[in-house]
Amino acid sequence: MTNTSPTTPLTPAVFHTLLALSSGERHGYDIMKQVQAVSQGKVTMGTGTLYGSHKRMLDAGLVKESDKRAGPEMDDARRIYYQITDVGAQALAAELERYKRIVKLAQQRKLFPKTFAHDV
Amino acid sequence: MTFDQETAHALYKRLLALYPRAFRERLGESMQQTFNDLHNERKLQTQQGLFSFVLWTFIETAIGIVQEHILLTKEMNPMENTLTSLRLPAIISFLIILPFMLLEFMSVMVRGLNFDRRDALDSIVVFGFLWLGVAAILIILMPLVRDRRAANNVTANPVPAQGRTILTNPTSAAMLSLLLALPFVAILSLLLFHIRPPLGPLEPLLINPDPDQPNVLGSLIVLGAFLLAVAACLIARAPIVRTMRAGGGLLAHPINLILAVVILSFTTKLVVGIMVDQYPCWIGVPNCDWLQFS
């Protein structure tokens, strides 16, 4: 059993999946496309990684299966849609808060390259 | 190389069948659908073959399968019989021999060799035997290693905790495993010392006069003896595992331990011997089969 809680740091796969689901319910393929788009192609998840993390997220209550189905011309009975749960939203918020703190610390210590420091 | 879409989908479905049952039933169909979507997308995007995409997806999924089995093993009740979990050793051993299979495949492709029915049969026998051998070694060693790790957390008590059966009684297990291992030891001894026993009417069946034809009966006897040896090792190991699970030490049953180590050493020697013997062929050395005679 996974011991993921809203305060535990998230793996990149879980973080990106939660980020993708924060804007709406999606099925596996859609999540992959969304992750690829948001990360500008830098994060690529295969089906094994994606569904392995899905299983652990379902067990930990971060996401749940949704009743949503697309139109019959688009859909397939095997396609399962997922939605983020309250626990998942809390975990995502906690992770983003961690990122925010790290960025702030990096700014204070002037760790960003000069060209980038002005934009942050 | 081009891949027929239906073949790729059917193969992926078979691959998904290797996931643990609970995982497969929950997410298997969804994974298959996602693979189909990705495959269709790639097909529309590129006019080139989809081999690299299919290969990458299969390898990535195979890694996921191993991870799920490892997680399942960690969650498993430590008292559960390890023989109910044969799939993990089978998958791990397959992944161990996979690079060698790919070496042979690439060697044949690069050199443009004709790969006839005989060569295919030889490869199946060699890789099948290797797979079986590595899996047997893992099946024998995995519970010992796991229980050895767990032993640190248990109060020492060398007496088996539950009822004694023929497989958990150390003396019976030692005798039974010795009897089972005898054919293997006999065959290996004959091979090691180049002894040719008088076979009488069985000679034409066991010794093939045509070296270019596979000797099916002889292969079956060697395979049967090998399986008996593995069974013997598992039986000799049973009281050791049981005692370790009860908190006892590895040396509580010395005869059983000696038997298990001896059989395991023979099995490992056989597997390593096949690998060393076949390695020149896998990396594409010309006339590799004749190197030993030159």
How would you describe what is shown here?
The complex is a heterodimer of chains A (120) and B (294). In chain A, 52% of the residues lie in helices and 8% in strands. Chain A has 120 residues and is mainly alpha-helical. A three-stranded antiparallel sheet of chain A has the order 1-3-2. In chain A, helix 1 (12-21) packs across helix 2. The longest helix of chain A is centred in the C-terminal third of the chain and has 23 residues, at 86-108. By secondary structure, chain B is mainly α. Chain B is built from nine helices and no strands. Chain B has helices spanning 5-16, 21-45, 51-75, 87-111, 117-151, 170-192, 203-206, 216-245, 254-282. The chains are: A mainly alpha (120), B mainly alpha (294). The interface between A and B is medium-sized, with 19 and 23 residues.
List its traits:
heterodimer, A: 120 residues, mainly alpha, B: 294 residues, flat
Number of DSSP helices of chain A?
Answer: 5
Q: Provide the low-confidence segments of chain B as ranges.
A: 77-83, 153-163
The arrangement of helices and strands of chain B along the chain is HHHHHHHHH
Query: What Rg of chain A is obtained from the alpha carbons, in whole angstroms?
Result: 16 Å
The structure class of chain A reads mainly alpha
Strand content of chain A: 5-15%
Oligomer: heterodimer
Unreliable residue stretches of chain A: none
Number of strands of chain A: 3
Largest sheet of chain B: none
How large is the share of residues in beta strands of chain B? under 5%
Numbering strands along the chain, what is their spatial order in the largest sheet of chain A? Answer: 1-3-2
- SS elements, strand count of chain B: 0
Q: Given the helix and strand composition of chain B, which structural class is it?
A: mainly alpha
Helix coverage percent of residues of chain A? 40-55%
Shape of chain A: globular
Strand/helix succession of chain A: HEHHEEHH
The profile of the biggest β sheet of chain A is: 3 strands, antiparallel
Distance between the termini of chain A: 39 Å
Please give the most extensive interface between any two protein chains, plus how many residues each contributes: A-B, 19 and 23 residues
